[in-house]
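pasting for the record
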Amino acid sequence: MTGFLGQALLYIVPFLLVLTFIVTIHELGHFLVARAFGVKIDRFSIGFGRALLSRVDRRGTEWRLAWIPLGGYVKFAGDLDASSVPDQAGLAELKSRIIAERGPGAERDYFHFKPVWQRALVVAAGPAANFVLAMALFTLLFSVVGERIAAPRVLQVAPGSPAAEAGFQPRDLIVAVNGRPVVDAAEVTRTVMMSAGDPLRFTVQRVNGQIDLTATPERQLEQDEIAGRVRVARIGLGLGPLVQSDFSFRQLNPLEAFGKGVETIGDTVGTTATYVGRIFAGKESGDLLNGPIGIAKAAGGITQQAVAASPDPAWMARNLALTFLSFAAIVSIGIGVVNLLPIPVLDGGHLLFYGYEAVARRPVPARAQEFGYRVGLALLAGLMLFATWNDLQKLSLFKFLGGLA
């Protein structure tokens, strides 16, 4: 029993720490831009539920540390509903109430009566804060740890694999994929993973010159220590350095590290968009989408790997810190991207409503908002259920239950 609780804590605690940190930064983005525009804010809460600690600042904002560590939130004064986009009737009622309580002109301090461009910036500041956080973390990592590049040199070719049929040979150096130059094995792996069923043209360097080889990635069921059981597109190549000259590892100066961080964010967002597009096109099953359970498992897995990397406490602490910084950067990008989806319950949906308001010169009608809100909740719930189903499949839970039956 003690061992089970220890394992559970190993997965749950890192997940909650990372999630709360990232969501707090997200909400802080909303808060800072709102305060810059003079918006009256009732509360900034880290966590949900009853307050453990709280204080009210000179502007009347309550700063709260709550007992349920599942992120946090910002509450603007006068929020009427969960969508925070009241219609004309709701705005008129809110304005009358504010004037009755605080006098004429007081409504200008409230979020809903700010110009639409200011409201849009406040909403966009949340996802933007996630990307800024990721950039800061990647810049720190590339400055402190450095950049590792492993040349895409073929170490081995699996018999009967698409790579073997294409004619790959050990010691081949991949220099381009579909005409795009590559210098890192990770670039090749990422491209292959996003191309299941699509032929790829590889340009390889051999002793006697360059040749083009065509291979079509195939999905393979793999057991990953962090991700669990997943189907990943492969062509059957083992890539890595044959000799020390094939491998480079260098620290970057702050400017280079910042540029590499921006590049990494772009690659991550691009890969995510490509994968989602392939899901809608019917080319991917969505196996790689993670829900809370999958993220928690990944947090626990990387914690175990970081702890096991060295018995020295100082090295262990360093590995844990660097690992969590990298993990937090990736999760922060994911939260930023998801919140920009044009679903009414998310920031992207609010921006969609504000876009309509900017063009039509009036808020979205109440009935349309209600319909959009319900559809958005259904879409979000469906996405969460799908991701959770994926998580349980990767953990082989259903196979285990079937074995018990």
